[in-house]
Amino acid sequence: MADQIILRHVTKKFTTKTLGDIVAVDDFNLNVHEGECFSFLGPSGCGKSTTLRMIAGFEDLTEGEIELCGRLVSSSKKNLYVPPEERGLGMVFQAFAVWPHMNVFENVAFPLRIQKVNKVDINRRVAEALHHTSLTGLENTFPSDLSGGQQQRIALARAIVTNPKVMLLDEPLSNLDPKLRETMRFEIKALQRKFNFTIIFVTHDQSEAMAISDRMMVCDMGRIMQIDTPENLYNKPCNRFVHNFLGESTFINVEIRDGKAYPKGHPEQALDLPVPPDAAREMVVATRPNEIALKGPDGTGFTTHIEKRIFLTDRTEYLVSVGNQLLKVQTPHRVAFSEGEACSVHFVEPMWYPADDEQAEKERHRRQLV
Amino acid sequence: MANVKFDNITVSYGNHTVLKNFSLEVESGRIVCLVGPSGCGKTTLVRALLGLNKPETGVITVGDRCLFDAKKRVNVPAEKRNIGIVFQDYAVWPHMTVLENVCYPLKKQRRPKDEIQKRAMHALEQVHMTEYAKHLPNQLSGGQQQRVAIARALVVDSDVLVMDEPITNLDAKLREEMLLEIRMIQKRLNATILYITHDQQSALQLCDKMAIMQQDGTLCQYGTDEEIILHPANRFTFEFIGVSNFIPIEKGPAGAVLKCGGASPIPYDGEVPQEALGGGYELGVRPNDIVFDPSSPIQAHVTSRVFLGSEYNYFLNIGEKQVRVQQSMLDARTRGVAKEGETVGIRFLNTRFYPAKKGEQTV
Amino acid sequence: MKRYDGASAELAAVDGRKRLNMDKVMTAVCFVLLLIIVVIPIVMIIYNAFFNEGRLELGTFVDQIKEEKNLSAMWNTLKIAIGATILGTIMGVFYAWLLGRSDIPAKGLMRALFNIPYMFPPFLGAMAWDMMFNGRSGYINKFLRTLFGLKTMPININSVWGIIFVEVSYYFPFVFMQVVSALERMDPTLEESARIAGAKQRQVIWKITLPLVKPAISAGALLILTTSLAHFGVPAILGYARGIYTLPTRIYAVIYNSGGSFDGIRQGAALSVMLVVVVSLALILQNRILSAGSYDIIKGKSMRPTLIKLRGAKVPLLILAILTLVLIVIVPLVMIVLISFLKAYGLPLSFENFTLDQYRTVFASNGTIDSIKNSLFASITAGVVCMFLGTLVAYVVQKIRPKGKGALEVISMLPYAIPGTVLSIGVILAWSGRIFGINLYNTIWIILVAYLARYLSFSMKTSSAALLQVHSSLEEAARVCGASHTESLADITLPLIRPAMVSGFFLIFLPAMREVTTSILLYGPYTRTLGVQIYSLRDAGMIPQAAALATVAIGIIIVLNTIVTKLTKDRKGV
Rounded CA gap, C156 and C449, in Å? Predict the structure, then answer.
C-alpha cells in the first residue's frame, strides 16, 4: 500500500496573549496508507485538530511539510500552501456544517456545481450519494427539518459526491447520541468499503477510535505518543499515559527483589508473575480491570480478600487489596464474591512501566492546569 | 428527613390520564431513583409532590404530615410543603449571588438575619461552595450551579430533596463527578432524595433503591439495583436496564427449540420453565451472557466483529435472527476470538423467558 | 423542555381563583389600553379619510389622489426609500463584511465608530449638508465655484439624490449592525466546508456567507425602508423649499397650509391612507424579494473564523472606511458647530465673524428652554409609561397566554409599521375633542399620547425577548422555596427582566428626544419639542441659532448615550 498522506517534521506554534508561545503540534512524522482508516486520538488540546486543519489547508505550518497523494501541498520552507479547495479532499465537521439555506439536494450538489459538472451528471451523482447515505426521498427537505443523524448524513453525502481520495472526519460523531453514534460508525465504514477512500478520523473517544480504525495515533500535549493498530495499542501501550487513556486501567506499584515482584510496602507475598529481565528496582504493573481473573483461594495466584464490591449495570466491580494498595477487578455478574471473602488474583500478561512514569503523569496534570 | 408516601395517585390532563392509582413509599434517608422512559409520568408525579399540579385522587404524605388528600380536600400550597427541589436546569436565579440564592428560602420564612446568614453559609459549606458565595451564577460552571441549587434546597432543612434529571445537561465526565458528589452529600446529611431520571445508567450508579415506571404510568418494579438487575420483574425492566437479545422459543418434538427463521428450528438444551413452552414466549439473554462453546448445538455465523478496547462486540446470525455478543478481554485472551465469516457454537447463560411483545411474535 | 409547556396554566389551576382574577385583570387592562392608545387613532384615520359626518364620502380621498403634487410626492417617497434602502444595504453589508471577516486592523474601534451615525439625528445631518452644498448658498459650493471659476453651483444637495445620500449616511448602520453580529455568531465551519467542497474564497462569499446572513440583511433593509418611507426631517430640510415633496412632508404642508382646519386634517388623513398603502406595498415587495427565513447558524464549538487576507487592498480599504466615517460624522458635526458661532448666516467662515451670541440667545429664549423641557418631559414620561405598559403586554402575551393573545401582539406591534406622521394625524383626530370629548390639542399631552402609541412596540419587544429567557422553572423554584405567586413575580421575574426594561426605556427615550416626524404635526405655541424648535428656527431663517441649538442637542445626546452605555455595562446577572 502506498503512502497517501505524509507528514514530515510538522510543527505548529501559536502565540497567545495570555500564555505566550504554545507548541500545539511538535514535530509530527507520520504516513497514512492508501485505503486506511487512521485515527488521531488524544485529549483536548493534544494537537489532533490542529494537525487535521493543517492537512486540510486551513492552517499554515510553522515547520515541516505535508504531502497528499504524492503532491506537496504544504511546505513551510517553500512557503507553499495549496488552498483547501484545490486539495481534493472530503471533510465532515463536528457541527455538521450543512448549509441551512439549501435543501438536501442542493447541499450535496454544491461541490459538483462548483466544478461545473453538467446537469444530468449532477442529478445522477447526487442521487447515488443520497442513496448510499439513506437520504433518498429527502431531496427537497431543508436541514433544519432533519435530525442530527440525518444532517450528518448530508455532510457525508456532500463529502463523497466528488469521490475524493482522502476523507477528513473531525469528531463527526460527538454531537450525536450514543445509539446513533454506533450506527453512523458502521455506515462510515460501509461507505469507505464502497468508495475506497482513505480516512483520517479525529476523536477524543478511545472506544470509537478503536472500533473504526485500522491504525491510530495517540497524542498528548502536542506530541505523538504511539502509532499502531488498535489491538496492539490496547494490549501493548508504550507508556502509562497511553495505557490509561485507552481504557480503564488499574496499577500496582511493585518493588523487585530476588527476581520477584512484591507489592510496594508489602514484603510478605510476591505477585505470581514473571519479572521482565530489564526491570528496575521499582516498577508499576499495569493491567485492565476486566483482564484479571478472580478465583477462590486455591493456593495459586496472589491470595488475598475482597475489600469492596460495587454492583454495576453490566458487571460487578471488586476492589481487592494487594498489600496496602487496591486493585480494581471487573467480572461478569455470574462471578460472585462477597465483601471480605478470600480470593486469588490471576494476572494475564500485564504491562510493566518504570515507576518514574508516575512522576511524568503528575507533571502532565500540572502542566494542564497552567 | 422523612419518608414519602404516595397512595393511589391519579393525575390526568384533559382526557389523558398520566398516572393511574400510583402508589409508592420512599424510605427515610435513602436515595430512590424514579426511572422510566420520557413521558411515563415521573415528572408529573414529582410536580404533584411539590404541589405544582393537583391529582384527582390519592394521598401524599411526607413523614406524618399530609400534604395532599383528595377525599379530605387537603392541598398544602407549594410554598408551604417544605420540599427541596433541584430542577433539571438548576433554576438558579441569575440576578442573585450564590449566597443570595441560598438565603432566599430562609428570607421567605422570615428568619432573623444572623440566622439566615449562618445557615446559608453552612449549606454552602456542605456543598463546598463557600468561596463562591459572592459569585453570580453565570460565573460558575454547570456543576457548580448544580451545587448551588442543592444548597438552596438543603438550607431550609427540607423533609425531602427532589432532583429532576439534574445532570442530563452535563458532559459524561462531569456527570460522573456530580453523581459522586450527590452521593457524598446524601451520606453526610442522611437525606431522603427522590431522584428522577430516564437514564438507567446514572440511576444505578447513584441510588439505594430504584422504582421503574412503565410508559403507561404504572410502577413495574421497586427494589435495590441488584434485585432489579439480577431479577427483573418483567420484560420491560429487563429491556429497559440494559442491552438485550430475544429469541422466540417453543416446544419441539424433543424438548425446546429456538425459532430463528430459516430452515429448521434449533434444538435448545438449556433449562426452560414449563410455561415458556406454551408458545408465544421468547428467550431473553444479555450480550455478555453469551459465550463461545464449540460443543453447543446452537451454531451461529459471525457477521461482524468490532474491537472496543475492553471488549469485542460481535453480531452473530442464528438462522436469520441477529444477536449481539460482548466478549470480555479476559475471555478473548483465554479462549480466543471468533473471526468474521466463521461459524461458532454459542451457549446462553442467565437466560430469562418472557411472553413476546405483540406484533413481534412472528419473526 | 417541552415538559414545562403549560406550566403556568397548571400553576393557575393549583392556585385557584385568586390567581385567575389577577391574570384576568392584567389581560383586560392590556386590551383597554391598547384600544385607547393604538386602535382608536388608526380607526379614526380610516374613518375620516372615507367618511364625513357619518356619511361615506370618497370625494376628499379621490381629490387627493388626483392632485398632481401628491402623486409626485408619492413617487418621490418611493424613489427615495428604495434608493436609500438599496444603497444603504450595500454599504451596510460591505462594511459589515470588512469588519467581520477580513483582517482589517483596529476592528473594535472601527466597530464602535460605525455605530455613531446611528445615534446622529438625520435631520441635523441634513441641516449640515444643506449648509455645505445648498444649491444656492452652500459654503463648500461657493468655495468650489470661486476656486474653479464655475458659473453654477457644482453640487446640489437639494435633490432627490441629495436626500437619498443623506438618508443612506445615517441609515446604513441598521443593516451594518445586524449583519456584523450575524457574521460573528456564524459557525466558521459552514464556510470552511464550502472551501473543502472546492469553492474559491470569492465563491464562498457569494454562495454561502451572504445567503446565510440574508435574514439579517433583510431585517436591516426592512428597517431602512420603513424608516425612510415615514421620514420627515431630511426631505423637509433638503426638499421642502425646492418643491420636492414626499408624502410625509406633503401631509405636513397640507395641514400647515390649512392652518389646522378640520378640512386640512381630513386631507391629511386621506394622504395618510396613501402613505400606509405605499408602506404596505413596500413591505410586501420586500418580503417577496428577501423572504426572511430564520436559520440556525450558531452552532458548534466556537472557533476563530479564518479571516480573509486583504493583502494589498488592506491600506486602501482602511482609508476608505476612515474617510466614510469622517464624511458622514465628523464633517457635518464640524459644520454645524462652525455655523453656530457665526454672527449671521452667509458670512464667510473666518475668525472675525465668530461670536457666542447665538448661544446666549438660545439660552435666553423662553421658547428654546421650553422646547428642551418639553422634549425631556415627553420622552421621559413616554419612556417610563411604555416601559411598564410594554412589559405588562409582554407578560400577558408570553406568560398568561390568554385567548386573543395573537391580536394583542399584532395590535401592539402595529404602530411599528405605521409612519409617525400618520400616527400623529390619528392622534389629532382622536384627541381633539371629537370622540371622548377630551381635547388635548395644543397641549404637551397630545405629543405624549402619540409617543406612547409610536414607541410602545419597542419596549414590548425587548421585554418579550427577556421574558422568553425566564424559564418557568425559575418562578417555580421560588414557589417551592416558600414564595407566594406575587412574591415570586416581584423577587424573580421582574428583577430578571429589569435590564431589558431599562434598555427598553432608553430605546424609547433616546429617539423621542431627537425626533421631529411625530411632533411637527402636534406642537402648539407652547409645546414645541427640541426637534421642532430647531426645525422652526431654521425655517424662520435663523440658521446660526438653529445650529447652536443643534450643537446643544447633540451634546445632550452624546452625554445620554454615554450614561446609557455605562449603565448597561455595569448591570449584573442574566
Answer: 39
| Residue C224: closest CA among C239, C213, C234 | C234
| Cβ-based neighbour number of residue A284 at 10 Å | 21
C-alpha cell at A124: 445522477
Reference C49, options C251, C310, C331; nearest CA is C251
The yes-or-no answer to whether C1-43+355-574 and C58-340 have a common fold is yes
Whole-number pLDDT of residue A192: 92
Bridge partners of residue B210, in order along the sequence = B33, B223
A88's grid cell: 481534493
pLDDT tens digits for range A216-267: 999 988 899 999 999 999 999 998 889 988 888 899 999 998 888 999 888 8
Record: contact B310-A288, CB cut-off 8 A: yes
Residues β-bridged to residue A72: A67
Here the cell at position C193 is: 466546508
Q: Which pLDDT does position A52 carry in this prediction?
A: 94
Q: What is the pLDDT of residue B268?
A: 86
Q: What is the DSSP letter of C326?
A: I
A163 phi/psi in degrees, rounded to 5: 55, 55
Mean pLDDT of B266-294: 87
- Provide the whole-model pTM: 0.76
> Which three cell numbers mark C308?
480573509
How far is B106 from chain A, CA to nearest CA, in Å?
38
Task: Assign domain C1-43+355-574 to its CATH architecture.
Answer: Orthogonal Bundle (1.10)
Query: Which residues on chain C are in Cβ contact (under 8 Å) with B18?
Result: none
CA distance C98 to C87: 16
Whether residues C572 and B95 touch (CB distance < 8 A) is answered with yes
Most confident of A55-69, B180-194, C104-118, C405-419: A55-69
Q: How far is CA B173 from CA A313, B168, B179, in A?
A: 18, 12, 10
Name chain A contacts of C189, Cβ cutoff 8 Å: 93-95, 97
Tens digit of each residue's pLDDT (9 = 90 or more) over A175-216: 777 778 888 888 899 999 899 999 999 998 888 899 999 999
Domains of chain B, each with CATH number or no CATH: 4-239 (3.40.50.300), 245-355 (2.40.50.140)
Name subunits touching B (3+ CB pairs < 8 A): A, C
Question: Given B91, B109, B137, which is nearest C482 (Cβ)?
Answer: B109
Q: Domain A3-240 is in which class? A: alpha beta
CATH of domain A248-369: 2.40.50.140
Q: What is the bridge-based pairing of β-strands A215-220 and A37-41?
A: parallel
The mean predicted confidence, pLDDT, of chain A is: 88
In chain A, which segments carry CATH 3.40.50.300? 3-240
Residues A130/A159, Cβ–Cβ less than 8 Å: no
Comparing CB atoms, the residue among A210, A313, A333 nearest residue B309 is A210
* Strand, coil or helix: C226: helix
Candidate from C473, C474, C482 with C-beta closest to B105? C482
Please tell me the CATH code under which domain C58-340 is placed.
1.10.3720.10
Contact C481 B108 (CB under 8 A): yes
So what's the ipTM on this one?
A: 0.81
Residue in C352, C425, C490, C148 with CA at minimum distance from that of residue B108: C490
Rounded distance, CA B202 to CA B200, Å? 6
Q: Pick the closest to residue A200 from A42, A5, A63, A44 (CA basis).
A: A5
Say what the pLDDT of residue C293 is.
52
- Mean of all residue pLDDT scores within chain C: 82
Q: Which residues of C414-441 are buried (b: 16+ CB within 10 A; e: fewer)?
A: bbebbbbbbbbbbbbbbbbebeeeeebb
Residues of B in contact with C484 (CB under 8 A): 79
The domains of chain C are located at 1-43+355-574, 58-340
Q: Which residues of chain C have pLDDT under 70?
A: 1-21, 260, 286-287, 289-306, 568-574
